[in-house]
Amino acid sequence: MRTYYYHGRRPLAGGNFTSGVVGRLILANVLIYILQLVLPVRFSLLLALTPRVIIEDFYIWQIFTYMFLHGGFWHLFFNMLMLFMFGSTLESVWGGRRFLNYYVACGIGGAVFSFIFNYNNLILGASGAIFGVFLAYAMIFPDNIVYLQFLFPVKAKHLIVFFAALQIAMGLSGPSGIAFFAHLGGMAAGLIFFRKQIANSKWVARARRRWSDYSRRKRGQWEAQEDANIDSILDKITAKGYEKLSATEKRILENYSKKSKEDSGDT
Question: Do residues 63 and 108 touch, judged by C-beta distance below 8 A?
């Protein structure tokens, strides 16, 4: 999955990055990639997914471990970027346990499709799980804008359809070294998970409501901090005069004044 930028919903904020499921998943992927670099290639062969090997030698763990290996730095980087951008938001509305269950389910979905379409090939990477994560994001926040390649604004619901169509087209075009059907497997598992876990729109509405409540609380904290900063600046003006303000304090006061005028409708 390549570079995309989004806006509209802030990802999970506050706390230690590694205390959340997304942070721990990213850390695990990075550490395992380092092991791939320093250990003999047999390490990767044992953990990467090869469906034929699972059937013949019963390396059943590969169904889980393959999603933590990557074929290169940029493969790892883009997958972890997508996990952070979209997975953090999902974790904030679902909670860590539900998100982790979903993530693993999508990774297993990618493995299942690999049995069907890539039986003799070696498969590795978190892309199947990542495509599932973006599918969930697009279903819960369909109208959020995602900047494709940092340039083209596209609604999440339209981009996920484009992704799915692209994976099908590329998968049917012949061998390329990329497991397009594993990506589709992750998305298919995501759809099944949604069908099982959120069979009606009430669950989606509840997830959106939880996110709205979370955003409102964070916004209240930001506004309280902003008010405290403004009070401190005004006290300094009273005690020492405007000319004693630092450039940063003057900028904060100017921005606050502009915001107050916009909120009140003044021009």
Answer: yes
